[in-house]
Structures are given as C-alpha cells and as structure tokens.
Amino acid sequence: MGNRTPPLVMGHEFAGTVVEVGEGVNENLVGRTVAVNPLSSDGTCRLCRAGLANLCSDRTLIDIHHPGGFAELARAPVANVYPLPEGFSGGARVGALAELLANGVHAVRLRGPGEAVEHTVVIGAGTIGLMCLQAAVLGGIPNVAVVEPHEARREQALGLGAHAAYSSGAECREALEEHTEGLGPDLVIDAVGAKATRRMAIEELVRPGGRVVMVGLHDDATTLGFHGVVRGQISIQGSYAYTARDYEQALEWLVDGRAGIGELPPVLVTCLVFSGLMHLDVLSDVAGNETIVHGLLECLTQEGQQELYGPRRKPGLQFGGAELSDVVRGQGLELVSSQGWD
Ligand SMILES: [Zn+2]
C-alpha cells in the first residue's frame, strides 16, 4: 500500500447523506443517502475504450488521490454517486459495502467467455473473500467453497451462501476429489494474496486448464513452481478493483438483499473493524495519528472486542514511545495477523 502520501484522510468504502451539491447538479440529491464509487477514470483513453476503465492510467481514487470517507464530510463526483432507494432500510451501512462487493463481481467476471465453471474455491473469508464468494454464487456458479482457517469466518461464509467451507487447502482438495474426477476446482479466487495462499491456489487446488484469479495483495514477491503452470496450462489472472458496471451490479444485489455481510456487532464497532482497523498498519504510517489509534483501541475495548487485526504486520513499530503491540495488549486486546495465514 505504498501509494498513499500523508497527510491524507483515507476511506474508500463509504456511503453517506448528501448535504450539498455543486453547480449544475440536481438539488434533489440533497438529503438522499448515497453509495459512492470512489474510482474515476478519464473515459477516453485506449484502456477505457476497451472496457478496462479500472486500469486507466489517469484513474483516481477517493482515499488515495482525494480525501476519503473517514471524515464528517467528503466530496465525490456526481457521476460516482448512487442514491439508494427512498426508504431503503439498509441505509448507508449497506451502501458502504458496494465497493467491496464490486471487487468480487469483477473477479468472478474475469473468467473467459464460455469458460465453464462448475466448481469454484475462494481462499480467505475476510470481507473481500465473503464478497467474492457471494459474487460467485449470485453469478451462477453452482458449487462455491471457501478455504479459511478461522472457524467463525467459515461459519460466516456458510451463512452467506458458501456450499462448503474448509479449514485448509488439503482438506478442500480431498473433499473436491470425488466431485471433480480427482482434478480440483475450475476456478480459484485468492482473496488473501499471501505467499501460502498463492501456492495453495496454483500448486494445490486448481485443475489442469483452470484459472486462478488473484485479488489479495498481502505479499508481493512469491516463489511458485512454474513447471506445473506450464504443463497444467493454468491461467493466472490478476484482478484490480472494478468497473462502473461491476459496481452497479454489486449495489443492485445489496439493495435487493441478495448479498450482504450477515450479522454484525453494533454500528460503531462495525465501522471501526470493517474500515479502520483492517488498515491500522496503514493508519500508523500517517503522521500525527496517535490520537486516532488510541481512540480506536479504547472504543474497541469498551465494546467488548477482544481481537485487533493488523499491527503484527509491522513488528517493532513504535507508538507514543512504546511498541505498538504492547500498547494494544495494554488495552486487553489480542493481536491477530491481518489475515491469519502466517
Ligand atoms: Zn482511461
């Protein structure tokens, strides 16, 4: 995540109420609850014309190039603002999930035209994994399984439509043998991006001639055995963000209730856990953030949370004159790695 330059207000997964519109914008938008697609492209370059607006070299993202949603007020282009239906009970809380689900919609759509997919495995049932899973199910793939080491996350995945949930790649591979003539899944989506999950996807799970879609960005350099990729004719596909079409599909599924995030703790903690703390290691890069992080820790403790994701990724990080990990433990919180794949 070396693409954010402090000082910067982050937050690209957000929704809210319109309080003011710019010149020439329909004033009826004021007061409406809207979901915000944070990604803008020029719409004119060769990539945009080819339907790859998510890869436009002039693209900008609210939270990288413009101040984001961790603020009382944020600004967005009107073309990126999607009013939720009047009286929609899910409100901004559901609207804020559209950006996440759009990533899943995009990843699932990247399989080739006419590419038959009967069995898909999503690695990782964190928020993005849960969204990829739902996009695969709603996209019509008949068998969608997840691999996830945390039991609570496996349960969440099953509650959101996964047909099976396994604790390891080996367990998944064994269970799928019978249903795939011993070959493995047609499509594997890596929603983690750790070295271990990339190897699991390519070397352990995907069938010969199958496709692996890489969504997660946990690690960068990864060593892989490429003889198997060549001899197995495996397609390795990166997936970055989403197009406006993906975002609109995601929002439609969320608004009509076919997709979601399941049961959640109270809204304050939800916001912190799903947005802030997943990025605590990034937040801690931003100058002058001690107050923010201490505030988050105190909120979590008061709400009875026991786990904190993120800071173990930066061992030795100093915070207010102490190790960040000691500060966290001092609040009675357990540290867990951001993905649990170490
Ligand atoms: Zn462009």
From TrEMBL:
<dbReference type="InterPro" id="IPR011032">
    <property type="entry name" value="GroES-like_sf"/>
</dbReference>
<dbReference type="Pfam" id="PF08240">
    <property type="entry name" value="ADH_N"/>
</dbReference>
<keyword id="KW-0560">Oxidoreductase</keyword>
<dbReference type="GO" id="GO:0016491">
    <property type="term" value="F:oxidoreductase activity"/>
</dbReference>
<dbReference type="InterPro" id="IPR013154">
    <property type="entry name" value="ADH-like_N"/>
</dbReference>
<feature type="domain" description="Alcohol dehydrogenase-like C-terminal">
    <location>
        <begin position="128"/>
        <end position="255"/>
    </location>
</feature>
<dbReference type="InterPro" id="IPR013149">
    <property type="entry name" value="ADH-like_C"/>
</dbReference>
<dbReference type="InterPro" id="IPR050129">
    <property type="entry name" value="Zn_alcohol_dh"/>
</dbReference>
<comment type="similarity">
    <text>Belongs to the zinc-containing alcohol dehydrogenase family.</text>
</comment>
<keyword id="KW-0479">Metal-binding</keyword>
<dbReference type="InterPro" id="IPR002328">
    <property type="entry name" value="ADH_Zn_CS"/>
</dbReference>
<protein>
    <submittedName>
        <fullName>Threonine dehydrogenase and related Zn-dependent dehydrogenases</fullName>
    </submittedName>
</protein>
<dbReference type="InterPro" id="IPR036291">
    <property type="entry name" value="NAD(P)-bd_dom_sf"/>
</dbReference>
<dbReference type="Pfam" id="PF00107">
    <property type="entry name" value="ADH_zinc_N"/>
</dbReference>
<dbReference type="GO" id="GO:0008270">
    <property type="term" value="F:zinc ion binding"/>
</dbReference>
<feature type="domain" description="Alcohol dehydrogenase-like N-terminal">
    <location>
        <begin position="4"/>
        <end position="86"/>
    </location>
</feature>
<keyword id="KW-0862">Zinc</keyword>
